[in-house]
């Protein structure tokens, strides 16, 4: 099963992908996470990506495709993947269709998480995560049950992404509208597009997504 989550920064792609992983036994594949790991490791791809990511632009298709293909070859992805933040350009979408065709697969569903731009700035600017397990939190929308302690792993250290300032979030939104939103039409033409209202609660969005995945799984 190949599921794509499309949506602007803060739409909840990562939040929902992690929920779907647990519920459907799928593997989340986030190009943003893979790029951040490359930046942290200081690989050549990471060195090239760092400044672009901090400015809210898109890393080159060449780098992203190399990282994605490498990850798609992993043994754990055979049950199915949730692509979170990929594809983001027409070139990436075409490359994905070709890559899947090599193994007789195709995109089963592409879900557009529809949201309001201004609300997205607030979501992104309040976000942080557990430094130990990566669980995501938000200053207003999702706080740990015990202050300062991760619900999932008990960790007490948290971090914020360098691109999660209101200013960079605006640049990322513009990048989304100009380069990624046109892919919604691409998947509509392929007959695999689903739209989910992602302004509701995390639980409501989760329920709507579960219906979409349940219909194609
Ligand atoms: P990436 O890491 O993909 O970031 P993004 O697309 O900007 O998405 P985010 O991670 O910011 O948001 P999300 O939709 O996952 O929301 P989340 O669930 O965290 O990419 C980062 C950068 O890497 C890009 O800018 C680019 O430079 C580069 N890059 C990555 N992929 C690339 C590619 N394919 N090609 C080229 N460059 C690439 O939720 C946000 C917050 O809101 C959280 O705090 C959460 O708790 C909260 N929240 C979630 N849902 C709800 C809800 N329903 N109600 C209230 N709060 C909610
Ligand atoms: Zn944790």
TrEMBL record:
It comes from the Bacteria. Pathway: Purine metabolism; AMP biosynthesis via salvage pathway; AMP from ADP: step 1/1. ATP binds at residues 10-15, 127, 200. InterPro entries: Adenyl_kin_sub, Adenylat/UMP-CMP_kin, Adenylat_kinase_CS, Adenylate_kinase_lid-dom, ADK_active_lid_dom_sf, P-loop_NTPase. AMP binds at residues 31, 36, 57-59, 85-88, 92, 161, 172. It catalyses: AMP + ATP = 2 ADP. Consists of three domains, a large central CORE domain and two small peripheral domains, NMPbind and LID, which undergo movements during catalysis. The LID domain closes over the site of phosphoryl transfer upon ATP binding. Assembling and dissambling the active center during each catalytic cycle provides an effective means to prevent ATP hydrolysis. Some bacteria have evolved a zinc-coordinating structure that stabilizes the LID domain. PANTHER family: NUCLEOTIDE KINASE. This is Adenylate kinase. It comes from Paenirhodobacter populi. The gene is adk.
């Amino acid at each position: 099963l190949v599921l794509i989550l499309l949506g602007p920064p803060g739409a909840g792609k990562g939040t929902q992908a992690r929920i779907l992983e647990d519920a459907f036994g799928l593997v989340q594949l986030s190009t943003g996470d893979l790029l951040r790991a490359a930046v942290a490791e200081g690989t050549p791809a990471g060195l090239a990506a760092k400044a672009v990511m901090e400015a809210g632009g898109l890393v080159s298709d060449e780098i992203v495709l190399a990282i994605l293909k490498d990850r798609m070859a992993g043994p754990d992805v055979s049950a199915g993947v949730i692509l979170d933040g990929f594809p983001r350009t027409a070139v990436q979408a075409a490359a994905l269709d070709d890559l899947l065709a090599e193994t007789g697969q195709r995109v089963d569903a592409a879900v557009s998480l529809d949201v309001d731009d201004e609300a997205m700035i607030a979501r992104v600017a309040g976000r942080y995560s557990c430094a130990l397990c990566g669980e995501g939190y938000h200053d207003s929308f999702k706080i740990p049950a015990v202050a300062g302690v991760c619900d999932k792993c008990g960790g007490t250290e948290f971090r914020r992404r360098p691109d999660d300032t209101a200013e960079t979030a605006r640049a990322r939104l513009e990048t989304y509208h100009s380069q990624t939103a046109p892919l919604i039409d691409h998947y509509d033409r392929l007959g695999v597009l689903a739209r989910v209202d992602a302004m509701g609660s995390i639980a409501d969005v989760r329920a709507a997504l579960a219906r979409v995945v349940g219909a194609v799984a």
